[in-house]
Design brief:
- The chain is mostly helical.
- The chain folds into two domains: about 90-275 and about 395-420, Citrate Synthase, domain 1 (Orthogonal Bundle), CATH 1.10.580.10; about 280-390, Cytochrome p450-Terp, domain 2, CATH 1.10.230.10.
- It is built from 18 helices and three strands.
- The chain has helices at about 1-15, 20-25, 75-85, 90-100, 105-115, 120-130, 135-150, 160-190, 205-215, 220-230, 240-250, 255-265, 275-290, 295-305, 330-345, 350-370, 380-390, 400-420, and strands at about 45-55, 60-70, 70-75.
- It has a three-stranded antiparallel sheet with strand order 1-2-3.
- α6 runs parallel beside α8, α7 (about 135-150) packs antiparallel against α12 and α9 crosses α10 (about 220-230).
- It binds acetyl coenzyme *A and oxaloacetate ion.
- InterPro entries: Citrate_synth-like_lrg_a-sub, Citrate_synth-like_sm_a-sub, Citrate_synthase, Citrate_synthase_bac-typ, Citrate_synthase_sf.
- It comes from Xiashengella succiniciproducens.
């Protein structure tokens, strides 16, 4: 429509701000410093993300990534519960919320609440199954989370006990809501069967999610890998886009459902959690356009095309590559890649896995050549192999970002509690400098 086109052109024109002005007024674009590190905006006891170190002169030195939950290194945590032969997501959720590892008894009590909470109230299941329509599960999930407000008579109670109660309830309910939303979506829009299973209290959260999707047709290894993926995605400090959203919204003293729905909107974004689905689309595009997957020169030439905005979605992005903090590596990507390699072998998908590895290897070099000059050290991030792993364990693409959401609830919840209850809490309200000149009002007949 002509009028819309005209309006859009005017909107874009009046939105544009010269990059040079950011330097002039010393404004940190994207809240990032010139050396690519983040502007310090808060303190937290929850997660710690390490991607670089500073030398004596204050220069940023790239290092292999390390991730800590409540002070514990992620690799120690995962190796710990795996060595003892149990799933870890519930234990890690407890750790993130309580700030300490649970004893056996504490974990059993926590698990018991999850089992109760995962049984959705009838009105909620009925709404999900019969009325909730949508083509995007993240959107369906956010609408459902906002709907939970009406089912919670204590929705506006911000006492620590109630915040914890709401948090555990959301951790327990997310997988069930996502499974029902998936079947509702495919029933409405893919003309496929609606399958409704009750959650099974004898299974871990990860295994139960697989059961709700696939019935008994999943293996112990698949459940173990999904559990690991949930643990690896559970928390990432206060500055990642969705957790920061949770903190910003929570700092205004609003309800849990509003802040978690806002976080979902952020995580859905293609530069954040939504990147895991974009990686699949991008890799499909590479598979179609690169004739010889083993020819590194051909793969790299295609990556250059992506950077020049000539391929895939013309965004100029290589999805699954690069990170705001990590430089040489993302430890979650390293751990997922280990699993991806073993799964690919089992599933006879080694050629595809080798192509992923080639892209992982070649993308940084392609990026450095493309950018030249001063640029950040980049590597594959957690979203690069996660979709491939989910594909190997038979999960449909539409679920990849929702699985990230299921995993991140404990992290968001812990940050919300920290934001709302800390004695140093203050509404988050930074400043924007206006760069528009003042104007004199013009009456309608003179415009
Ligand atoms: C769970 C997660 O959220 S992990 C991240 C998932 N997202 C993706 O995989 C999407 C692809 N990656 C990216 O877009 C970026 O690397 C991000 C969003 C993750 C981090 O972005 P930033 O912190 O702004 O990037 P950073 O400061 O490190 O990079 C500087 C420049 O390199 C560009 N760049 C960084 N990564 C990429 C990439 N993968 N492809 C193309 N360009 C990139 C940035 O756009 C920026 O360009 P500019 O200077 O012209 O503005
Ligand atoms: O830290 C970030 O910017 C993004 C990220 O990896 C996450 O949230 O897991």
């Amino acid at each position: 429509m002509v009028v819309i086109k005209k309006l859009a052109e005017a909107a874009v024109q009046s939105s544009d701000i010269d990059k040079a002005l950011y330097d002039k007024f010393n404004v940190k674009r994207g809240l990032r410093n010139a050396d690519f590190t983040g502007v310090l905006v808060g303190l937290t006891n929850i997660g710690n993300v390490v991607g670089y170190e500073k030398d004596a002169e204050g220069n940023t030195i790239p290092v292999h990534g390390r991730l800590y939950y409540r002070g514990y290194e992620i690799t120690d945590l995962t190796r710990g519960f795996q060595a003892e032969g149990r799933h870890g997501f519930e234990e890690i959720s407890y750790l993130l919320l309580a700030g300490k590892l649970p004893t056996k008894e504490e974990l059993a009590e926590f698990d018991a609440i999850i089992k109760v909470e995962q049984e959705l109230p009838f009105s909620l299941s009925k709404n999900l199954i019969l009325s909730l329509r949508g083509r995007n599960i993240m959107n369906m999930l956010a609408r459902t989370v906002l709907g939970l407000y009406t089912l919670d008579k204590d929705a506006e109670d911000y006492s620590p006990e109630n915040l914890v109660k709401q948090s555990i309830s959301l951790i327990a309910r997310f997988p069930v809501i996502v499974a029902y939303a998936y079947f509702a979506m495919r029933h409405s829009f893919q003309r496929r069967s609606m399958v409704i299973r009750h959650p099974r209290p004898d299974l871990s959260l990860a295994a139960n999610f697989l059961y709700m999707l696939k019935g008994d047709k999943f293996t112990a290894l698949e459940a173990e890998i999904l559990d690991l993926a949930l643990v690896l995605h559970a928390e990432h400090g206060g500055g990642n886009n969705s957790t920061f959203t949770t903190r910003v919204v929570s700092s205004a003293q609003t309800d849990t459902y509003s802040s978690i729905a806002a976080a979902l909107g952020s995580l859905k974004g293609e530069l954040h959690g939504g990147a895991n689905m974009k990686v699949i689309g991008m890799m499909n595009d590479i598979k179609q356009n690169v004739k010889d997957w083993k020819d590194e020169a051909e793969v790299e030439a295609y990556l250059q095309k992506l950077l020049r905005k000539e391929g895939y979605d013309h965004s100029g992005k290589i999805y699954g590559i690069g990170h705001a903090i990590y430089t040489l590596s993302d430890p979650r990507c390293v751990l997922l890649k280990e699993k991806a390699g073993a799964l690919a072998k089992e599933a006879g998908m080694e050629d595809e896995f080798n192509l992923y590895q080639a892209v992982e290897r070649l993308a940084p070099e392609a990026f450095y050549k493309f950018k030249g000059g001063q640029r950040k050290t980049i590597a594959a991030n957690v979203d690069f192999y996660s979709g491939f792993v989910y594909k190997c364990i038979g999960l449909p693409e539409e679920l990849y970002t929702p699985i990230f959401a299921i995993a991140r609830v404990p992290g968001w919840a812990a940050h919300r509690i920290e934001e709302v209850t800390s004695s140093s809490a203050r509404i988050i309200r930074p400043a924007y400098k206006s760069v528009t000149n003042q104007r004199v009002y013009v009456p309608m007949q003179k415009r």
